[in-house]
Design a protein that fits this description.
heterodimer, A: about 625 residues, alpha+beta, 3 domains, seven-stranded antiparallel sheet, B: alpha+beta, four-stranded antiparallel sheet, flat
Chain lengths: ~625, ~120
């Protein structure tokens, strides 16, 4: 087995000091992320975890990552090289801080990702960089929320700033910040987001300076090199000793470009060879004419995110992990598009799908491993999309202009893993959370009528996928106006894949119920139920991508908006599932009696208390019949 | 390397064959794609709803195929994958030497033109 890169540098730092340093920078990441969460301007940051932090070396390589959104890694490592190339390393001064949200200068996956980066100087010596990134609710462009299905290019999607100083030599530049905020529909809230990022970076500036004072400049720089060398060595060892050499293959599909319901395959071949990994995306579809693409930063970030979750979750994540990794892309593709292709939905579509694809191919590689630790990380696909539900109105419950992006997609069903059922969780928003209904209703002009488990959404399997949920809202509040919106989903005709015989999770849909008397029901002191609204009978299911702005509205208290979220794929043949687990799922409303019988081969009998019993003696008889039918039908 | 398992398929290097983990039935020879040898069928979106319940949703699309791959000996569902209509079955694993024999060698491609590949530091 030949190795194409230089052997790992000798680690000079003693193990104890290295561990202390490694923990210190990881704790710095926690401090920075909690700062973002505490100071953010909207629910996106405060409740939903759509942000990231990073500590970088002098060249912009990752030393530590606050792992909230895995694929943020792609652009957070691209900003510093862009600054060096365009402004020159010598132009930097202590106290500089840059704002950046341009997907094509490495500053973001989509323009909503507004980053703030600062060089770290100690006694005029550049020792590294700190950076934050947060999804801001609106960054201008043609539509509220800045997801623009009908944009023909990135220029039409949002206000974009390539890296620009908002602090120069320690002096705040209000003119620059104002120039950015004047282009958003929520200047106060986005301004608060940016301030949160500035604040988080100040923690890094302070703590890194203290660390440099403790170890000296040369000592600090050696620690930085050694944490990367340590992670590289561990990663190479894992690849070489715990993965099976060979070529693994996987494909998944993005879908619906707003113009038509076209499928866009994203293909990858993973070669495991010695201590290195080669991801080859040849054969991936050409870029789309609309917002579902991602640029190279999204591709790079997606590869890193999947590796972080499945191959090296126990190894300190920094650029050393990525040294044994090579990626090939033909370019001009849906997950490596060229400017000025639109990318406003990159995070929920092409970049997310690329995470799914890399996870899918890694699942085959880790499942082949002799390591139980790695085999337990073989997984069916997690949810696989972030349905974008943006509602906007001229007046919220407080009389203010309102743009609201529902962030409940972070509660998607996770994929089942080898040995474990799926749960609630996102493969992309690693620490994402679903805001409470109360938090929603406090900050947006909506009444949440229902939030419920979505029966049979989970991919059936020996280990069941994570179930998803459904919600119904209507515009609400004394001063609230009717609401318009922009809506985008995938996993609509292409379901969330299962693994190794596990069923795919349900597709995602959303829709409207018009003319429901919600106002009257509330006046009577009750919320209408799912059945009261006859959701299943009256819902108008909408296209996977819809733009309502200027032509259609949800009427306050009369029209209900139904949202669903992505479910996880199942793992393994459902006929191998423990029958008692099938019964328990039915008791909890996760699966129906029909699915228990037809997908799992388990007949359930209702009991007086509303739960179910299973006749274990008949299970194998029924399952044998299902297996025979499979073979008969397969011909 | 004696072998390994991916999903429910045992890759037995010593015996140069792939077998079903559940019944030990032979699926194909080492280096071949078992999905081309086993029983398989295409499932439409409407059938998924019939098999689960009306609560399960999948938009009908002419280009989307769900394919089941079934052990011909015991009926175990070995895989259940999503495809664009007409695509060949995906190969979960191919030995390096087999890939090289058909002309694919990622390492050589990288070494021949490293500037065309994305690296991370």
């Amino acid at each position: 087995m030949s190795v194409t890169s230089a052997p790992t540098a000798h680690i000079q730092t003693d193990p104890v000091t290295l561990e202390v340093f490694s923990n210190r920078i990881q704790n710095l990441m926690k401090l920075m992320t909690s700062t973002l969460e505490n100071l953010a301007g909207t629910l996106v940051g405060r409740e939903s975890g759509d942000y990231s932090t990073a500590l970088l070396d002098r060249d912009g390589n990752t030393i530590a990552f606050g792992s909230m959104v895995g694929f943020h890694l792609g652009h957070m490592t691209s900003v510093v090289p862009w600054i060096y190339e365009n402004y020159g390393r010598d132009s930097l001064r202590p106290g500089d801080m840059f704002l950046s949200n341009d997907p094509y200068s490495g500053g973001a996956v989509h323009s909503n990702d507004v980053g703030v980066f600062a060089p770290i100087f100690v006694d005029d010596e550049l020792v590294g960089w700190t950076g934050c990134d947060m999804h801001c609710m609106d960054v201008g462009g043609a539509l509220p929320g800045s997801f623009v299905p009908n944009a023909i290019d990135v220029v039409a999607e949002a206000c974009r700033f390539s890296p620009v100083r908002i602090y120069g030599g320690g002096e705040y530049r209000p003119d620059v910040v104002r120039a950015f905020l004047v282009n958003t529909r929520l200047p106060e809230r986005v301004g608060q987001d940016i301030s949160a990022e500035v604040g988080a970076n100040h923690y890094a500036l302070k703590i890194v300076e203290e660390t440099v004072r403790e170890f000296g400049v040369e000592g600090y720089l050696q620690l930085v090199e050694d944490v990367k060398a340590f992670s590289e060595a561990r990663t190479r060892q894992r690849i070489e000793e715990e993965l099976v050499d060979g070529v693994y293959e996987y494909t998944d599909y993005e879908e619906h470009d707003f113009v038509s319901h076209t499928l866009y395959p994203i293909r990858v071949r993973l070669t495991v060879s010695g201590s290195e990994l080669f991801f080859d995306f040849s054969g991936t579809a050409a870029q789309a004419p609309s917002l579902i693409n991602c640029a190279r930063s999204g591709l790079k970030g997606a590869v890193m995110a999947a590796l972080l979750m499945q191959l090296v979750p126990d190894i300190p994540f920094n650029s050393g992990v990525m040294r044994p990794v090579r990626v090939f892309s033909e370019g001009g593709t849906i997950n490596d598009c060229t400017a000025p292709a639109p990318v406003s939905l990159a995070t929920a579509m092409a970049a997310w799908r690329t995470v799914d694809v890399v996870s899918g191919v890694l699942t085959r590689a880790v499942d082949a491993s002799p390591s139980q630790f790695l085999r337990e990380r073989a997984t069916a696909c997690w949810g696989g999309t972030w349905p974008v539900y943006v509602l906007s109105s001229t007046s919220d419950q407080y009389g203010q202009y309102s743009v609201f992006l529902n962030m409940d997609g972070s509660g998607e069903g996770s994929g089942a893993l080898r040995g474990v059922d799926g749960a609630r969780g996102s493969s992309v928003l690693l620490a994402g959370r679903v805001p409470s209904v109360e938090a929603h209703e406090l900050t947006e002009p909506n009444l949440y009528i229902a939030r419920r488990i979505w029966a049979d959404s989970a991919g059936a399997g020996r280990w069941r996928g994570g179930w998803s949920f459904q919600e119904i809202v209507t515009p609400w509040g004394e001063k609230a106006a009717d609401q318009s919106g922009t809506f985008c989903t995938s996993r609509n005709a292409v379901p969330t894949p299962g693994a190794f015989g596990g069923y795919p999770g349900s597709g995602v849909f959303y829709g409207v119920i018009e003319g429901a008397d919600i106002t009257g029901a509330v006046a009577d002191g009750r919320l209408p139920s799912w059945d009261d609204l006859d959701v299943d009978g009256t819902i108008e299911i909408l296209e996977a991508k819809e733009v309502w702005e200027g032509r259609r509205h949800l009427r306050k208290g009369h029209d209900a908006f139904v949202m669903t979220f992505a479910a996880g794929g199942g793992f393994g043949d459902p006929l191998e599932r423990d029958p008692d687990s099938v019964r328990a799922d039915a008791d909890e409303g996760i699966i129906s009696v029909e699915a228990a019988r037809q997908a799992y081969g388990v007949e359930l009998t209702p009991t007086a208390d509303g739960t179910f019993e299973v006749d274990l003696e008949r299970v194998e008889e029924h399952r044998a019949a299902v297996r025979a039918a499979r073979l008969r039908d397969a011909g | 390397m004696d072998g390994f398992t991916i999903g429910s398929v045992k890759y037995d290097h010593a015996a140069r064959e792939l077998t079903c983990e559940k019944c030990a039935g032979r699926l194909c020879a080492w280096g071949e794609n078992y999905k081309e040898s086993v029983a398989s069928r295409t499932v439409r979106a409407a059938e998924m709803r019939e098999r689960l319940s009306s609560s399960y949703y999948l938009k009908e699309h002419d280009e989307v195929e769900l394919r089941e791959f079934i052990c011909p000996h015991c009926g175990l569902l070995l895989d259940f994958e999503v495809y664009q209509a007409g695509e060949p079955a995906r190969l979960d694993y191919e030995p390096l030497e087999a890939a090289q024999a058909r002309g694919y060698d990622a390492r050589s491609l990288y070494q021949a033109a490293p500037e065309g590949w994305i690296t991370f530091s």
